[in-house]
Structure formats: C-alpha cells, structure tokens
Amino acid sequence: MDSGFNTMYRSLYKFCISPKPYRELILTKAAPKVAVQGPSVEISELTTEQNQVLNEMIGAKDYYLLWGPPGTGKTSVMLRHLVEYISQEQKQNVLVLAYTNRAVDEICASLKSISPEDENLFIRIGSSYSCGEEYKSTLLRKRIVGMNRRSEISKLISNTNLYVSTVSSIINRTDLLKMKQFNTIIIDEASQILEPMLIGLLSHVKRFILIGDHKQLPAVVVQGESKTKVANEVLIERGIVDQRMSLFERLYLRCHEQGWEHVIGILSQQGRMHKDIMKFPNHYFYDDQLSLLSKLTRLSAEKSYLDSDAHPWISERCIYIDTPIDSYYSWKTNDPEAKLTRRLIEIYQSEFISNNLLLTDGSLGVITPYRAQIAMIKEEIKDMDRVETNKITIDTVERYQGGARDIIIISLCTNKLSQLDSLVSLSSEGVDRKLNVALTRAKEQIIILGNRKVLSDNPTYLKLIDSYFQLNYDDVINSIV
Fold this sequence. Notes:
Layout: H1 2-16, H2 20-26, H3 48-59, E1 63-67, H4 74-89, E2 94-98, H5 101-112, E3 123-125, H6 140-143, H7 150-159, E4 162-166, H8 167-171, H9 174-179, E5 184-187, H10 195-198, E6 207-212, H11 225-228, H12 233-237, H13 247-258, E7 264-266, E8 269-270, H14 275-285, E9 291-292, E10 318-322, H15 335-354, E11 364-367, H16 371-381, E12 393-395, H17 397-400, E13 405-411, H18 420-423, H19 433-439, E14 442-450, H20 452-455, H21 459-467, E15 469-471, H22 473-477
Parallel strand pairs: 1-6, 1-7, 2-4, 2-5, 3-4, 5-6, 8-9, 10-14, 10-15, 11-12, 11-13, 13-14
C-alpha cells in the first residue's frame, strides 16, 4: 500500500515540475490543438465511423479521447489498427498501457494479430507471474536472456518501437522512460485509472490517447463520497470535483463543456450483444446512442441458437428468476441461488449436447458480487457429471470488465435491503456502472437471479425485472435434465 501511494506522490511531483504548457493542457486551462489533416487512411474491414475515428486519432496533436461503449471494438479493432499504423507506417515509438494484467493480455492478443509470425513485434514490461503463458516470451527479461553486454540490451530497446505494460509496471521502471523517447502513449480502459497514476507519466510524451467508457466500472476507491469530494473552488472550476474520478472522465466532460469536440471520438456500433440484450442498457445507460453492426446477422436473429422442447424458455434472450432470501448463512451468500445456478448449468449442458454444440471457454459465465458466493457456487458444481466446470468462469463483475460470454448468469445474492448500497455504483451522470457492465457481458442470453422484493426498492432494477421474461424458481429447480 505504501509503495502504491509513493508512486502516486512521485507522479504528482513529476506533474508539478513538468513544463507549463503541459500542466495547462491537463488542467484544461489551454485547449488541445486542432489536428492538421494528412492523407486519409481507409481500411476496408472498418466501418465508416471507425475509419473516421481512426483518422482523428492518427492526426491528434496533444491528446485524444475515444469513448467506446461495450462491444464496440475499442481494443480488438480500434487500438489494434491505430498501433499498427503509427508504429509500422509512421515508425513512431509507442507505449500501450492498461490497468490490469488481464487487460494487457487482451492487448497482446490483439497486437499479435498484426503480424502473427513476428515474435519480436513488441516488448512487454512486467513480471512472468502476472503474464499470460502465451505472452511470457515477449517479456523484456525473457528477451535479454543470453545477452552479456549493456550494448546488446540497449540495441534491443532502441530497435523495438512498440512496448506494452500495465501502468504500475511502467511507472516503477523509470529507467526505460529515460532510455526510450516515446512519441505516443495509448491507455486502454483509461476510465479505471485515477489521475495521480497518469499525469506524471503522460508528461514524458508529445501526445497521449485515452480509450475508455466512463459509464462502465471506475477505479476501485475505498473512501466514500464524503471523503473524496473536492471543496477547492479553483479545482472545481477545472472539473476536479471528486478524487474518485478518472482523468479520462474529467477530460471527456470538460472537453464537452468547452466545445473541444475535435479531440473526442465516439463508437456507436456494437457487435457483441444481441439486440434484445442491448435494449435495456442502450436506453437507460447510453441514451439510445448504440446501434448494431449491420454485417453481423446474429445480432438481430429472431431465433435463438438454442432450441428445446423440454425447456421452451431457453429461446428467450433475457430472463429473470425471483429467488428466496437466504438468512441461514452470511448475507454474502445465497444457497438457493447457488443451487439454481447448478441446475441452470446442467440444463445448458444438456441443451448444448441436444443442439450439437460444444461448451467452450466462451460459452457460459457466472457473475456474482461476493467472493463468498463465488466459493459457494464453485462448491455446488464441483461434482457435476458431464460438465467441464473449468470452462465456466465464476467471478465478480469487476473482474469481468472487458470480457464476454455467450450466456451470462448473474447471481445478485440479495438477502437484505442494505446490500443495494454496495450493489449500485453510480457515475456522475447517474448511470449504475456495475449493472451496466454485468448486463453487457452477454452475447446471446442473460439470466438474472435475485429477490424481487429487495431489488424492487431500486427503480432501475425494478424496470429491468419488469422488462425481462419471468421464470418460476421452483419450475427450474425441479425441471428434468
């Protein structure tokens, strides 16, 4: 903890001693420069909207903010093509960052597709303990094995113009920033990172590009609103109103206020959620700005990819099951929901077999707010027959951000009204970010488990329940598999 705070203090100090033009840019006292348009880049596999945003990012002078709601291809499409162009065509030195190692793994997977045969395309900074197995060979410490001279290492660093890392790893390796002058820093999922982590780091480069969605999960902050609200009028004037707010969100809101639309890009076409799943978050969280990628016919398919005579409800896209309150154990567990989750997994396994489909890593996932409920569900399903439980990811919504599954089961584990306070995470615009992320992880179907009486106390959850197909708890529990 001390190390983390010291890192932020050093970053703040670096910001304070940085050149005045940079400080005024970050504090929004100065407007970001308007890009001078060069030759237009046109990539056939991108939509008109994506090509426009790509060209704006390429031409950005000081910074650019890309807002991408769930499933719009922020990482897999936009980040990949941006990095490919500026690192290979423009020969820029590029540093790509994210907050978590899981997110960095996803970036590595996206960048690998640029040139699958090139093992030396990029260098990853970090530890082998927190790196995906398939990307360990890209780690700097792996790449320098067998090098006995500093000149060899210096040559490797000089000849590689693309680097990938978590924010914390690069901040704690300032020697690389001294050895290598980066032209551009790109930060994915930037809405999850607090300002002190970034404002010192970003002073090292000519421009930065932040990619995120401030309507999804923010940075994890333990302190409540009463301790993080800003009272200083000078800071409030610059949009620094709450210390829990990310740099991405503050700059995004301030640029809108000031009319600096030239540094804001919005992706409005999503290719993840079926239209029925998209309907609720689109209306209540994104003001109906989202639309479907027209080339993906499955997004608007009328018939579900699962069909069943035994369980006719399985063709419904959005399902809610009213579950009993469990007061026997800790309020962070719900045994009826754990047993119901097991039964649903058994049903889906049976239906996958009937429909000649394989249960893969991307087929089925379970989201629940508490680690105790995760443990209970895992214990419940560990002895299931015919089901490869290692292919079913059971985790919190925080760890699911950035991921998706065909079918998502959400066990809300609602046993008392006071739980709603921790279940809900409102943005400055009143959007429930936890619920938004949970709902938008599903591609084909979503099933929500929770007690209606408790959930109805929250108007958003009440509207959600009423918009979903209602399924009876006992009917599912007692159904034949």
